Amino acid sequence: MLAEIITIGDEILIGQIVDTNSAWMATELNKIGLRVKQISSISDDREHILKALAEAASRANVIFITGGLGPTKDDITKKTLAEYFDVDLVENKEALVNVERIFAKYNRPLLEVNKQQALVPANCEIVLNENGTAPGMWFNHNGVIYVSMPGVPFEMMYMMEEQVLPKLKATLKFPTIIHKTLLTVGEGESFLAERIVDIENDLPPHIKLAYLPKLGQVRLRLSAFGENEATLQQEVNAFAARLIERIGLPFVIDQDITLEKALLDIMEANNFTLSVAESCTGGYLSHLFTQHPGSSHVFLGGAVSYSYELKESILGVKNETLWQHGAVSEETVKEMVEGALLNFKSDLAIAITGVAGPGGGTEDKPVGTVWIAVAGKGKSLIKKHIFGTKRRQNIERSAIAALSMLNTLLTEIKK
């Protein structure tokens, strides 16, 4: 069972707004077993809309259309849908009552142009819009279902959750979908692919492997489609076990959570607390942890010690260490992490110091040079990294590298 999503609006194509509707819809459709084959964004142009509808109908069982349902002249989706199905626009009484209700609620005069919102193609069932005046429309034509909804995200989401998704599940039979996600850290996508190529080649047609790379980490997502949930789960688990054995993954995650959330869960399960001492990352690592509810059970806090003075006064880094070796050095990061453990009284600590850029680099310490230390429970790791020249990426890469090192430390502690 395949679906396509068509978003209509010049404002999307010129970059005035970001199409968040498609990503949300694709996620929700995947949950019920409806796979999205293609997503298209097209202009408010009659010919483009007609062509997009015809092409989508040749590929998909269900087509979702958002946008172009407003009362203004450039909102031509309804008129074009009527042309596509070769029917007239007719007034729908239920839709008109809803328009009148909305205007009465806000004590606004109902204009003739607003009443036109109740005009819909004669062959549609309306999807009532309780949050706006533009009704959604459901069509069943030549074995293909078409669902047209407003482009306003909260209106579309409400209609999908309350009406469209329940109706789809009642109308169509969907396969079972099983997902399992493995989170890998510290190895690039191409290296992973080379290491597991034989396992990937062994996958049957109903099981797909997706690579989802991000800075410093790659998620491997196994997706299985079929009728028997127990059989699918068994197959996915078997392939996941082969991947884990081959790669030696630091994490196996059945839900879509981030690396730092996985680390927080591990530390909380072991009653460990954590503090950080940041320099070049400027609090970004702290942000990654504290964005998660409940992080206070583990994360005690930290220091953003940019200057020599704060490294000395807050973390206890020796003045002679800073002047002899510099802020970006193995010696300094070692004293930073030791100071965090001592002064913040945490079980574990992370320290980061480096040259984020674009300026500040030297011949022996170019932009992108970062020292990271993790320590606690009688163990420690210190490592030098050379990243790139872009400040934002260096900050993010430093944080991800620190998380990876923390994971290694936790693994060592548990041995």
Automatic annotation (TrEMBL):
Entry coiled-coil feature ranges: none
SUPFAM superfamilies: CinA-like, Molybdenum cofactor biosynthesis proteins
InterPro entries: CinA, CinA-like_C, CinA_C, CinA_KH, Competence-induced_CinA, MoaB/Mog-like_dom_sf, MoaB/Mog_dom
Alphabetical list of SMART domains matching this protein: MoCF_biosynth
Domain MoaB/Mog: 4-171
Pfam families reported in the protein's UniProt record: CinA, CinA_KH, MoCF_biosynth
PANTHER family assigned: NICOTINAMIDE-NUCLEOTIDE AMIDOHYDROLASE PNCC (PTHR13939), NMN AMIDOHYDROLASE-LIKE PROTEIN YFAY (PTHR13939:SF0)
Family: Belongs to the CinA family.
Protein name: CinA-like protein
Organism, scientific name: Mucilaginibacter rubeus
Upper taxonomic lineage: Bacteria, Pseudomonadati, Bacteroidota, Sphingobacteriia, Sphingobacteriales
